[in-house]
Amino acid sequence: MNCLLCNREMPYQITLKDIFSFGEILTPVICDSCKNTFTHWDSDNQCKGCGNGKAEGRLRLCKECQRWQQLYGWHLYHRGLYHYNDAMKNYMQRYKFNGDYRLRLVFQREFSRLVNQSKADIIVPIPISTVTMQTRGFNQVVGLLREVQYQTVLQVIVEDKAAQSSKSRKERLETTQPFSLISPEKVVNKRVLLVDDVYTTGRTLYHAASLLKQAGSQWIGSVSLAR
Ligand SMILES: [Zn+2]
Ligand SMILES: [Zn+2]
After folding, report:
1. What is the Å distance from ligand 1's center to 199 Cα?
2. Which bound ligand lies closest to the C-alpha atom of 10?
3. What region holds the Phosphoribosyltransferase domain (predicted)?
């Protein structure tokens, strides 16, 4: 088997753990040197909102989350798994924009474990537009989920002309609500976990979360592969 990222051949040794797990053997899909280019967030003692920023004030929120709190009167409980560093940017470019569907396997297990650890009643991936679906062929968020019971509750109503990644921070924060709820009844009084691939400004997740709030969700958390 070759590394999915650098294509180098990987020596694969079956470990005792594999032998005694009686389950599926967890063959690594990337080599150790590629694996080491990604860095996990360490979320001890950080912002209660995004898990990453420096917590300040009575609410223990970072400056960005304090802004969301002021705007909406509530804040998300977000967790990002990895730093959005150069390796992650490069990964996203290949997986999402070049549409290399195999690359979902690089983080699928670990990310799905994080999603399934949540105490939420319902798991909602951020949707992509019909146009993106036609060009890319898959929803990159759903691609990262394996053995996760998720629900399609949101849909994209506004096709964004410019890609998020080509916008300035200010432009991203000023976008209009791009989603609508397909089945609001599913989220009433529920604890909802939103799932996205990348958390940049939080704008996308807050748009989605505000619809869930209006529909009567009890609690809203979110996770992303990168932050
Ligand atoms: Zn590699
Ligand atoms: Zn924060």
Report:
1. 25
2. 1
3. 119-226
The Cβ-side half-sphere exposure at 12, using a 13 Å CA radius, reads 13
Angle at 182 between CA 177 and CA 188, to 5 degrees: 95
pLDDT in tens, 78-100: 999 999 999 999 999 999 999 99
Query: What's the 106 CA to ligand 1 centre distance in angstroms?
Result: 11
What ligand is nearest to the CA atom of residue 77?
Answer: 2
Amino acid type, 139: N
For residues 103 and 205, state if they share a domain.
yes
The reported pLDDT for the residue numbered 52 is 78
Q: How confident is the model at residue 165 (pLDDT cuts 50, 70, 90)?
A: low
Enumerate the β-bridge partners of residue 67: none
Query: What does the pLDDT read at residue 171?
Result: 72
How far, in Å, from the CA of 105 to the mean position of ligand 1?
A: 13
Q: Are residues 220 and 134 in the same domain?
A: yes
* Å from CA of 8 to ligand 1 middle: 6
